[in-house]
Amino acid sequence: MKSKVLVTGANGQLGETIRELFSTNNLGLEFIFAVKEELDITNKVELKRYFNLNNFSYCINCSAYTNVEQSEKTPDLAYKVNAQGVQNLAILCNENDIILIHISTDYVFDGEKTKPYTVLDKTNPINEYGKSKLAGEQFIQSSLSKYFIIRTSWLYSKKYGNNFYKFIVKNAKNGIDLSITTDQIGCPTDAEDLSKYLVELIADKNTNYGIYHFCNSEPMTWYDFAKLILKENKLLGKIDLKATSNYRTVAKRPKYSVLG
After folding, report:
1. Does pTM surpass 0.85?
2. pLDDT class for 259, splitting at 50, 70, 90?
3. Per the residue annotation, which of 79, 107, 129, 223 is the catalytic one?
4. Do the beta carbons of residue 104 and residue 137 sit within 8 Å?
5. Chain centre distance of CA 91
6. Is 129 designated active site?
7. Helix, strand, coil percent values for the chain (each to nearest 5)
8. HSE toward the beta carbon, residue 17, CA cutoff 13 A
9. 246, pLDDT greater than 90
10. Alpha-carbon dihedral 57, 145, 12, 80, rounded to 10 degrees
11. Residue ranges covered by each domain of the chain
12. What is the CA radius of gyration of the chain?
């Protein structure tokens, strides 16, 4: 019998990537992809009913409120999904003996280090988004023993969602000049590589539960990443790409959030 794997937030860039790569597979896994309209993790009643109707072995939680800027203005929205919604999932996974694989972020750190953050480093988020994601992590740890918290950074898909990679390509093709910050250093992570890593955890029946860091690229600034994107798409020189250290945002951002 195949193990059933629920993927929440399946219409996001990571969920869509998992669907593309693994909806058909020879790993003995049956994936159930639930978009927000079908399954809202902030709705306890709906979530409980959905879990009772299915016999899941794993849940990959891709549901998240990821608008960092808006989180500063309306933090309740971020906490509703990233903390309370995650708590709902953790409780139900515990009740149904489901292994939870939860996607978290480098923004749980303050960015004051100058070398990669490890899973043993103290968390200290400096914006509301990071605080809401850390609260979600803590709810999982207090409710579950069988879980994987996977912190990743600067996630992008070349095909799905709204992200930095697609933003750069779109603007370059439209001839729009860009100024990109050099103030932050991190590791861009391809959703395809993260998807493969997550499914490998399941296929290998990994039971070394806990917190993990996953990123798949050399540390760089957003400006460096933009140059790589333009080069990869043969768009370098098509627009005027400027480096800036004066890019202002509402939310504070970690200056260094490389994961190790």
Report:
1. yes
2. very high
3. 129
4. yes
5. 21
6. yes
7. 40, 20, 40
8. 23
9. no
10. 130
11. 3-163+188-217
12. 19
